[in-house]
Amino acid sequence: MKITKDKTLKKYLTGYNLRGTLPDFSSMNALEIIYVNNNTIEGPIPDFLGLLPNLRTLNLSYNRFNGSIPTSLENKNIELE
What superkingdom heads the lineage (predicted)? Predict the structure, then answer.
């Protein structure tokens, strides 16, 4: 999946059977909501998620992420699901 810079505010990728690692959304700095739940995404939770300036809702549930929550997400006022 190729991610390009745009003015997208929401990404709903729930149940798309996505596999592998999470694509880099860091150039999409207008993103406010990301739902990538119910897939088979694996690997560590990417640090760039906490660097998205407008992100307020993030759903990573029911995937195969491992490791700890990045420090960039720890102090943000984000609704984690």
Answer: Eukaryota
Between the CA of residue 50 and those of 17, 29, 41, 80, what are the distances in Å?
A: 24, 11, 18, 11
The residues of the chain scoring below 50 in pLDDT are: 1
- Domain at 37, CATH number: 3.80.10.10
What predicted TM-score, i.e. pTM, was given to this entire model?
0.86
Which class for 5: exposed (0-12), middle (13-18), buried (19 or more C-beta within 10 A)? exposed
Evaluate whether 42 touches 22 at the Cβ level (below 8 Å): no
Q: Which residue has the tokens 């690997």?
A: 43
2 occurs within a structural domain: no
